[in-house]
Specification:
alpha+beta, 4 helices, globular, 17% strand, single chain, four-stranded antiparallel sheet, 4 strands
């Protein structure tokens, strides 16, 4: 299982328009996301605007960098995902949020 994160805008049509490609990463790093973002981790970004999510992601990334050893200790034993991949994944989402501050974050 994995996270698929993308951003959409409401254009008034029957379905929202995608403004980013989907970013995908494994659920196996969920403990890292919960530690860095708090609450339900990455799922707490669901429905936020890019601007709102960017604030949370900036803080989460600073936490992950500042607590690198703690985060590395959460690397999944099965080898699916790791600290470096999780960090790059969040950095990519932050980049999308900064490019599209009015779009909405969607996670599936």
């Amino acid at each position: 299982m994995s996270y698929d994160v993308y951003m959409v805008v409401d254009t008034g049509g029957t379905e929202p328009a995608y403004v980013t490609e989907s970013r995908n990463y494994t659920y196996n790093v969920s403990p890292m996301f919960r530690a860095a973002l708090g609450g339900k981790g990455l799922n707490d970004l669901q429905g936020l605007s890019g601007a709102e999510a960017a604030v949370k992601l900036t803080s989460a990334l600073a936490f992950m960098v500042g607590h690198r050893d703690e985060m590395v200790a959460l690397n999944p034993e099965n080898g699916w995902g790791d600290y470096n991949g999780a960090l790059r994944f969040l950095e990519g989402i932050l980049e999308d949020c900064l490019k599209h501050p009015k779009a909405q974050v969607r996670i599936s």
